[in-house]
Every structure is written in structure tokens, then in C-alpha cells.
Amino acid sequence: MSTRAGFVALIGEPNAGKSTLTNHMVGAKVSIVTHKVQTTRARIRGVALEGDAQIVFVDTPGLFRPRRRLDRAMVAAAWGGAADADIVVLMIEAHRGITEGVEKILEGLEEIGQGRTIALAINKIDRVKAEVLLALSKDLNERYPFSETFMISAEKGHGCADLKRWLAQELPEGPWLYPEDQIADLPMRMIAAEMTREKLTLRLHQELPYQLTVETEAWEERKDGSARIDQIIYVARAGHKGIVLGNKGETIKAVSKAAREELEEFLGRRVHLFCQVKVREKWLEEAERYSEMGLDFKDGNT
Questions:
Q1: Is 177 inside a domain boundary?
Q2: Is 232 within the bounds of a domain?
Q3: Cα–Cα distances in Å, from 52 out to 4, 48, 189, 223?
Q4: Which of 236, 228, 219, 215 is nearest to 279 (CA)?
Q5: 207-216 pLDDT, tens digit each
């Protein structure tokens, strides 16, 4: 019996549903999902099984017009993930249609698409009528010769099984790349940091959108089977520290509690989570912070 394995890159604009689809396909939460754009900073790989095939999803940062070093590094990571993959899936939001951002991505596909399998997934299909979907699909396929088109709802799971089956049969034959029980190739330290960052993003809304990062400083396995995890939340300004801490420490307590509960569910054991907030005015310009996020500092150069 022959096995198949390979990498599938999900690309698209921010909020197109790439992280939601990764999590649905893998069956576990490996990629940060919030209502905010640009939340996926690193190329998070989730590993899904379908029959004899192992599908490794590369959930890239959303493609957008970069303004800062961090933005440029994220966009470079997204295109790098697509260029390295066996199959690329472009995700489009049905209700937004062909935006200026989508036009730019289609141009980018012309550059990397030679001899590559590229599929189209129109997501959030429950938001538009059938005739709008069909017209959008026709328009996109006239602009680019996609190998296959799928109508899906990543959130509700509609159409995802068909996409997964198709991906499995399109991957090259070869041995599996990861152990059968592994669902992500990110170190647990980074997954833990991402979970805390998600909770901060949800809690702070517009106050501190992208001026913070989270690092797992220490991870101690205890004799009773629990884990002690120490994290540092870096903010760019002294004023931001107070926002993260909140009145009498309420915000940081709530964030730590929510992150700890999710980590316990994810790991299936008790977790002791300790979060500190530190000011590092130049963290957005530090190479070390980028490598912690799985990004290349050099890619942020203009």
C-alpha cells in the first residue's frame, strides 16, 4: 500500500479563514484564530491524515500591503510558504469577492504558479446567494487556471471533506513526514505563546493591536505530571504595560486564566501559567523576536 505526503500552503488576504480551515482539517487548535487581521505571524504547520495520505498544512500570514518591518517579514513568509509547497490553495471570502488585495495575489500566483497545483477555495459561502458564488467562481477561473475550485465554509465544515480528499489524492507518493500522532511541527513553547497572544488580542481589541508579542521563557515538567510555563509579554511602550496589566491587574489575570484553561485542554493535563509584562521599546526591530515568531528578520528589509 503506497502512502502520500506533502505540504499544502493556504494563502489569501487576512481574515480569509486560513487558520480556521487549518484547525478544522487537523481537528485541533494549532493556529491562532481571532476576529483581527494579521494574527498569524509564523507559518504554522498543522498535520492532517486522510486515508493513506499525510497532509501538512502551512497556514501562512495573510497577504496585505506591508508598511512596517514586521509586516514585510510576514508577507515574505506567506509567499515563501507558497513557493515551498506541493499544492497551494487560494482562499477567497465569498462576500468580499475580488478585492484589490485578491488582484495582487493573482498577480503573485503568475510568478510562482508554473507547473504547480493551485486550487481555489471560496470560503464563507453561507454569506452569499448561489448565483453570486457561481459568477465569482467563473470570474476567478477566467483570471487564473485553477486546478480545481471548492465552495466551502471553514467555520461550519461545509465542503471541507471534499477539499481534504482531493488534496490527499493530489499529493506526491512518499513516506509520511511526521509521526502519526503529531499534529503540529511548531514547538509547544510557541503554541503556548500563540494561545496567550490570542487571548490578549481578543481582550484588548483596538487598544494594542500589533504592538505586543509573547514568548515562552521557561517550561518545567513537574513530577506530578503538570507543567509550569513562564511567559513574557513584550510591549513597545511604557504606557502599553498598564493597558496589558489592567486595573488592579484584572486584564492580565483574565488573560492568563483563559490561556491556562485552553493550554490544559490542549495538553490534557494541569498547567501553572505565569505571565510577566516587560517594556522593550525596540522589539519590532530585534532579530531575536522575529526568530521566536518563526519569521526571517532580513525579510523585513525594504
A1: no
A2: yes
A3: 6, 11, 30, 38
A4: 236
A5: 554 578 888 8
Domain co-membership, 138 together with 216: no
Q: How far apart are CA 24 and CA 44, in angstroms?
A: 14
Clarify whether residues 195 and 291 are in a common domain: yes
Domain limits for position 72: 4-170
Cell match 515563501: residue? 80
Q: CA nearest 126: which of 149, 93, 153?
A: 153
Sign of CA dihedral 237, 42, 14, 158: negative
CA separation (Å) from 68 to 65, 129, 193? 10, 38, 22
pTM: 0.62
Asked whether residue 202 carries a pLDDT value surpassing 80, the answer given is yes
> Which residues are within 8 A (CB) of 56 and not within 5 positions of it... i.e. 6 or more apart?
5, 6, 7, 8, 45, 46, 47, 48, 177, 178, 185
